Structures are given as C-alpha cells and as structure tokens.
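URGENT: need a sanity check before tomorrow's submission.

F., can you look over the Stringent starvation protein B record below? I want to be sure the sequence and structure line up before it goes out.
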Amino acid sequence: MADFTSTKPYMVRAIHEWCMDNGCTPHLLVAVDSHTRVPVAYVKNGEIVLNVNYTATKDLLIDNEAISFSARFGGVSQNLYVPMHAVKGIFARENGQGMFFEIEDASLYAGKDEASDGQAEPSEDKNAIKSKKPTLTIVK
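Structure tokens as predicted:
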C-alpha cells in the first residue's frame, strides 16, 4: 500500500481560503513545542492563537510541512514558523467555524529531509545550529 501524505495541510489551506472568501478572520490554534517559533510571551498553557489574515501577516506561506509568516507583536515584527504537526485547528474568529485536528507525530511531516523544515541535523555542532536561525536587526 502506498504511503499517502497527510490531508491536514490541504484542509488548513481550504479553511483559510473559506474564511477569506466569506470575509472572516482566520485564526490558527497551535500547540507550541521545540520546533515552533512563536513569541513565547503570548503562549498560554502550551498553546497560542494566531491571526493568519492577510492583513495581519506578511509573506504568509502555508505549505505541506509548515506555516510561516511575519507578524507584529507589541509593535515588533517577528518571523513565525509553525510546523504542520503543531496545528491544532483553524477557525473563523467571527463564528468559530473551522476544523480542529489531533496533534500528530512530527515524523509524519519530516519525512525525506529533516533539514527542510529549518531544523538542524543532530550531528551538527551548536555553532552551526545558531547560524541557521533568523536574526532581527533594528535599523534606525
């Protein structure tokens, strides 16, 4: 039997598009783990809710492995990275309609190339890992 890809990323994209088509604000419920890059000050009980409306994000990309975008928190722009395995749900803020998921094993999405999701190979040293992380420089 062939191994099929997860339907989750397709459903997330579909609900996001449905929200946008109906004038609703799509929100993402995320279970925060070591692979998730979100502002930790806004994490409550290991979860965070993110507004993924095009007006609230910059460079929003929802692919099969992860959701990435830039957003402002407290006036400061931050780059966010949410692996698809950490997505617990996507819903419209206005009416709560959407879809919720069980948290899945990260290995379902890592598949062929662990480095493709921005995570370093375990055999690399800490300096190499630090060099792969994005940095924010304040320009005046």
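My own read: The chain has one domain: 8-132. The chain is about 20% helix and 30% strand. If you see anything odd, call me.
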